[in-house]
Design brief:
The protein is built from ten helices and no strands. Helix 3 packs parallel to helix 10 and helix 8 packs antiparallel against helix 9. It has a single domain, classed as AhpD-like (Up-down Bundle), CATH 1.20.1290.10. The protein has about 180 residues and is an all-alpha fold.
């Protein structure tokens, strides 16, 4: 299945998602690697199998194997980190924030692609997973590296549309079951 087929499979009530998905795919705020890395990482984070398959099939045509692996790694490591750091942020006991995480996160230091791209993908996944602490941390790294607010916003716009498409497809599948 292609992204076009996914878009066409969305119900009429999700017309805004169809339009947003089309416009985000054509937008030039991000580089092609940044855009497709965000699409792949956030599709994985959104966990809808047909959407993951469609985005993955197109992403492997537009990204190097290293970038595909790094986008997958961003989704994977953020699945862990977003839970852990959201907990330390939300827990009322401040001691949790001073305790070492003791979780391996080596891929963040050596993602195999430009660090800025990996940070952007990680921020977009963190937005889907709702970790404010991670969003702030990745945003600070990106802003320090000179990434514009518009680029950060674009990554989060992609994340929001991908998440909404996945939720809509999951909801429709549940109704059909």
């Amino acid at each position: 299945m292609t992204i076009d087929a996914i878009r066409d499979a969305l119900p009429d009530y999700a017309k805004d998602l169809k339009l947003n998905l089309s416009s985000l795919l054509a937008d030039t705020v991000l580089t092609e690697q940044q855009r497709w890395g965000v699409l792949l990482a956030t599709a994985l984070a959104a966990r809808n199998a047909p959407l993951v398959a469609a985005v993955s099939a197109e992403a492997v045509q537009r990204l190097s194997p290293a970038a595909v692996a790094a986008a997958k790694a961003a989704a994977s490591i953020m699945a862990m980190n977003n839970i852990y750091y959201r907990f330390t942020h939300l827990a009322s006991d401040p001691d949790y924030t001073t305790m070492p995480a003791r979780l391996r996160m080596n891929v963040i230091a050596n993602p195999g692609v430009d660090k800025v791209d990996f940070e952007l993908w990680s921020l977009a996944v963190s937005a889907i997973n709702g970790c404010g602490k991670c969003i702030d941390a990745h945003d600070q790294v990106l802003r320090k590296a000179g990434v514009s607010r518009e680029a950060v916003q674009q990554a989060v716009r992609i994340a929001s549309v991908i998440h909404a498409v996945a939720a809509t497809l999951d909801g429709e599948a549940s109704l059909a079951a």
